[in-house]
Design goal:
Radius of gyration: 18 Å
Helix content: 25-40%
Strand order of the largest sheet: 3-9-8-7-6-5-4
Number of strands: 9
CATH topology of the largest domain: Alpha-D-Glucose-1,6-Bisphosphate, Chain A, domain 4
Strand content: 25-35%
Distance between the termini: 28 Å
CATH superfamily of the largest domain: START domain
Largest sheet: 7 strands, antiparallel
CATH architecture of the largest domain: 2-Layer Sandwich
Order of helices and strands: HHHHEEHHEHHEEEEHEEH
């Protein structure tokens, strides 16, 4: 954890890299060429800065056809926030407020985290409703996890289901796809269904967990995707320590 935090701080220390993150805040999923147009430096220079951000986990690259798209990954920023803001609130809140996950609304959001656990344990934590509730704002996902089955997002402390959807693809312990419609308020319910894809890949003694939330309406309500950094931070904390992580989201339905 210390090494990972050090990499994040080193990546954020450079103003050009902070500007690159700002550009992805403004418009997520950009190509190298699109980012290069906004900087007075060579293509190679932009590539070097993006590589540092990718190594720190702050940027996730995905290929779509011939294009390589770059997405902001807010999870490491969330982890730094959880670790440090409570101790040194004033200076860090001011700095991190510029890097908070109020991502500009686009059709696709990508979040990634590394967890020291087996793929089987990660899969269980995602699909078991009781475990899921420990890091998912107190809500578990209820379904039999077979393609075509309905699912519900439920909390015993909520008066109604918080979400519903349908299971699309199940490939344990590697890949899980389902649709989701938020039901906790009329403002988000009107957004309709979007899609969530979980990808789990073993990397030696750890797992890379990537969540892609797509099929979002352009300009969609931020509530639909803004909680993922807190959820994934909570998942990592639970699997690695067995402890619950207190976040603003975790207090909603407890």
């Amino acid at each position: 954890m210390v090494a990972a935090v050090d990499e994040v701080f080193r990546a954020l220390a450079d103003p050009t890299r902070r500007r690159l993150l700002d550009e992805l805040f403004r418009s997520d999923g950009q190509t190298l060429g699109q980012l290069e147009e906004r900087f007075a430096m060579t293509r190679f220079g932009v590539m070097k800065h993006l590589k540092v951000l990718e190594e720190a986990g702050l940027v996730v690259a995905r290929r779509r056809g011939r294009e390589k798209l770059h997405f902001l990954n807010a999870v490491p920023i969330r982890l730094v926030h959880d670790r440090w803001v409570s101790k040194y609130a004033e200076p860090w809140v001011a700095g991190l407020s510029e890097l908070k996950s109020d991502l500009e609304q686009t059709m696709e959001k990508v979040f990634e985290i590394y967890i020291r656990a087996t793929p089987e344990r990660v899969w269980e934590a995602i699909t078991d409703p009781d475990i899921r509730a420990k890091y998912n704002f107190g809500a578990g996902v209820v379904t039999d996890w077979t393609p075509g089955s309905p699912l519900r997002l439920e909390s015993p402390n909520a008066e109604r289901p918080l979400g519903d959807g349908e299971v699309v693809e199940v490939d344990p312990p590697r890949r899980l796809v389902h649709t989701m419609r938020a039901l906790w308020g009329d403002d988000v319910k009107s957004e309709g269904f979007s899609r969530v894809t979980w990808e789990i890949e073993q990397i030696q003694d750890s797992c890379r967990v990537r969540v892609t939330h797509d099929e979002l309406r352009e300009g969609a309500n931020e509530q639909l995707y803004g909680g993922w950094p807190m959820i994934l931070s909570g998942l990592k904390t639970w699997l690695e320590t067995g402890e619950l992580l207190t976040t603003p989201g975790s207090l909603l339905y407890t």
